[in-house]
């Protein structure tokens, strides 16, 4: 299998090679074949309970992974704050996640989950013969064997990555007990969305033990975490404890007090509030409604866009409907309702009587011309 590779930027103003993500452009026939295999493999894993969706929420159809993952972590933080509990939350960033998974690790996962041997052999042949090359404006590289990692752009790659991560998570989950959230509620100590792994523990020693266990497993897999891109939040009796820090890969993990962290679209900082993010979303909704009002669309299309803006704000601001005071949510809804009324009150262009008369006259002329042509053909 050969693939043309292209680099797409991970962020704005990307310059270095580390700021780009390689994507493999594969033939359509191969994509269709492996998408069918991926669908069958996913169904096999979920129906047999091999993927714990309470922990891993990425790459599984029918699971609102991103929103559910972020909401559950935020809910745990809010409960620890309101119930005055102890809680440690550590967001871990995996270095070159897709590009560092060993092929042996994927084969191990296939064997552990009892995938038929014919599928194991087929995937082993597929990745062992996988070659790529990359092109820029100035040059094209030679063909390179994919000796480690999976190809981004291949339809079978996501579920294979989920399987490999599931092996790692299962090996580490016994290092800590469920996090106590009060009121008889608890949460598994590990949460994952593809490669975004989050540790949630009620005891500091359990958090450190979990970090050591994950670090050892990653070293065994020849993978590693990026401490500088990771972050931690420690809550003691409902308040942020800036003195508590953690380490991974023999380096200290920054705290949210030092630098806020963004995980799956949600920001976390030492205030443990959504006020600032709510204000940003309110500003975004207001600017978008003004832009819609200034455009030259008819009223019904403006109303349609207004509904779209409301939908976007829900996803951009995942605390939209569950803010502590509800002010942001109600204010956004109120402004959208006001804009909708304004859009409806605007008269469409055909409401002008003179324009309507011109349109009717033109329509009559077209009909007469059509009838004249039809009659001329019949006489012939």
In the sheet with the most strands, the strands line up as 8-9-3-10-11
The major pleated sheet works out as: 5 strands, antiparallel
Task: Please indicate the percent range of residues in DSSP E strands (runs of 2 or more).
Answer: 15-25%
SSE string: EEHHEHHEEHEEEEHEEEEEEHHHH
The percent range for helix content is: 40-55%
Q: Any low-confidence stretches, pLDDT <50, length ≥5?
A: 311-326, 346-360
Distance between the termini: 65 Å
Radius of gyration: 28 Å
Q: Give the mean pLDDT.
A: 79
Number of strands: 15
Global structural class = alpha+beta
Q: What's the total helix number? A: 10
Described by the principal axes of the CA atoms, the overall outline is globular
Organism: Plakobranchus ocellatus
Domain Reverse transcriptase: 1-272
Protein name: Reverse transcriptase
Pfam families: RVT_1 (PF00078)
Q: Could you list some keywords that capture this structure?
A:
16% strand, RNA-directed DNA polymerase, single chain, nucleotidyltransferase, Reverse transcriptase, 380 residues, globular, 15 strands, transferase, 10 helices, RNA-directed DNA polymerase activity
Descriptive report:
There is one protein chain. The protein has 380 residues and is of the alpha+beta class. Helices cover 47% and strands 16% of the residues. The chain is built from 10 helices and 15 strands. The strands form 5 sheets. A 5-stranded antiparallel β-sheet has the order 8-9-3-10-11, sandwiched between helices. β8 and β9 (196-201) form a beta hairpin. The longest helix has 27 residues, at 353-379. It is globular, with a radius of gyration of 28 Å. The N and C termini lie far apart (65 Å). Mean pLDDT is 79; it is low at 311-326 and 346-360. Keywords: Nucleotidyltransferase, RNA-directed DNA polymerase, Transferase. This is Reverse transcriptase.
